[in-house]
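Changelog-linked ticket: S-adenosylmethionine example.
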Amino acid sequence: MLADRPDRNDHWIEYRVPERPTDSPPAHTRRRRYRGKNPRAFHDKYKELDSERYPADVKKVIASGKTPAGMHLPIMVDEVLRCLRPRAGEVAVDCTLGGGGHARALLDRVRPGGRVIGIDVDPLELPRTEARLRASGFGPDEFVARHANFAGLPKALAAEGLTRVDMILADLGVSSMQFDNPDRGFSYKGVGPLDMRMNPRRGESAAQLIARSSEEDLVRLLQENADEPHAPLIAHLLKLQPLDTTHAVDRLVRAGLGKALPRLEKTDIKMSVRRTFQALRIAVNDEFSALDALLRSLPRCLAPGGRVAMITFHSGEDRRVKKAFQAGYRSGIYSAIAGEVIRSTKDETFANRRAASAKLRWAVRAVDSPLSP
Ligand SMILES: C[S@@+](CC[C@H](N)C(=O)[O-])C[C@H]1O[C@@H](n2cnc3c(N)ncnc32)[C@H](O)[C@@H]1O
């Protein structure tokens, strides 16, 4: 049974944490005790993590302007649909499937006869999203979930017997499921291993990256990935001792900045901690290289007249998308591109704070461009 949902076109995402066989009764486990009236730690948010059993609690959290633990609210869904203009029978690629909110909205509109290929580099969340979409009635002929990095988009399409598609979407960064789960190590808000890998089965963790990098490397990384104004000081702090947990980095940066720069406001220190985590995450996942590769492959992966939409969350990403679209427009590959970025509405920003920094851009592949067949 799925969470309470008004209708099919609503962008509500059902989230189920406990994976148990449907024919066996739920195993009884005693709820973990927490201090105070409301749970603060991720794993204690029992009701939010099980929207199937507690839909009213989940709705209450959303109505209060917060995102329930373990649930990703898709951003600017209506705006994305206006840019992509999906029609029945068309084929779309969602390069960042995440919790499947955007993919679901596309699936509803390409029916009948259309198809959505959902790509994600995260091997842990991908099967859960696939299972939710299957449970919502989308069969393998309509929806395919593929574990891949969008840097290799042409290869991922070839695996589906495709070279070009009608629509491509990329909603960059990490999902709330990844970010909120302290075991993944993405956020200073939870205590967990200093990991930050979207694909925890490959590459090095943030802890390994810090240990291997020189202080100069870390300065560059903090400046290039997050425009951090106190990069030299933070890089120095990060090299003082081995760091294994998110909490250790949080404490170290807060205490170090507070001591060295006593005039800094607490909010400024918090912003520096946030930027430090962002810079490390971008480096661990090689996010800019992947985005550059995707932007290069877009023109040959889009059918003539095809549409692309991209949601970015910081200037390093938006700059790249803007420049690639402008260059494509000048050379005649794109017949139209977004003049201005599209931002989320006030209401959406209230309901989902992640939407505040989101920027949406779009482009249309020219019918008779230099790359046309
Ligand atoms: C912001 S979330 C997308 C949320 C999604 N639009 C939804 O409606 O739920 C970003 C997702 O992109 C994935 N991702 C990030 N970089 C990727 C890459 N280079 N290749 C494939 N997936 C990537 C992340 O693992 C994450 O699941």
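Closing comment: Example verified and attached. Residues 1-26 have pLDDT under 50 and may be disordered. The pocket of S-adenosylmethionine is lined by residues 72, 74, 96, 98-102, 119-122, 125, 149-151, 171, 173-175, 198, 290 (CB under 6 Å).
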